[in-house]
Amino acid sequence: MKKTKMILGLSLVAISGLILVAADHIDAPATMSGDALDITDVYAFQGQNANNLVFAVNTQGLLSPNATGAATFKDNVMVEINIDNNGDNVEDLVIQAIKRDDKMYFFGPVAPGTTGTSSTVKTAAASGSVTISQYGATALTAEQNGMKFFAGPRDDPFFFDLGQFQAILGGTATGFKNPGTDTFAGTNVMSIVVEVPKSMLGSSSTVGVWAETKKKQ
């Protein structure tokens, strides 16, 4: 299980194009519990509708085009987006995503049954579902209860010049190139995206956001 955290100010997202992101493309082998559990990136940004906030959680990084077609979400892994809206670094709301057959089912935003590393599925707070998109096919989205949903493979949007970064660390370069070389070009991720009206997230002008993957016990 991996937790990635970032802080998002709702008062700031009115700035056009603002994206906040936390990234970690692969865990050390000793700490990984399977690629379906490995979170590469967490994004939060204002939707095209300024009244909405979009959350995106990407997993299973560094997928080649050949590997992407066989990549799947796992039925026994839940992706949970945690939202702290009172500044105490404890989740007040969660959005849960769970795969069943060819669909991804979403629950929340709703108060969690428990906080921390253990979770219960909030089945009474079902918010919608979407058919999981297939690699190479048209992306499928769904809209229910004022929310929008997507699940499936996507081109990895994260840009990083790993070679130049290593050169900087090794003392053979003093800074990044412009333009640099995108180390992740041509690789894909498995992505879960949910767009939520801000009104569902509480009245605070600032929220903390982090994501977890949790395996059924």
UniProtKB/TrEMBL annotation:
<dbReference type="InterPro" id="IPR025566">
    <property type="entry name" value="DUF4331"/>
</dbReference>
<dbReference type="Pfam" id="PF14224">
    <property type="entry name" value="DUF4331"/>
</dbReference>
<protein>
    <submittedName>
        <fullName>Uncharacterized protein DUF4331</fullName>
    </submittedName>
</protein>
<keyword id="KW-0732">Signal</keyword>
<feature type="signal peptide">
    <location>
        <begin position="1"/>
        <end position="22"/>
    </location>
</feature>
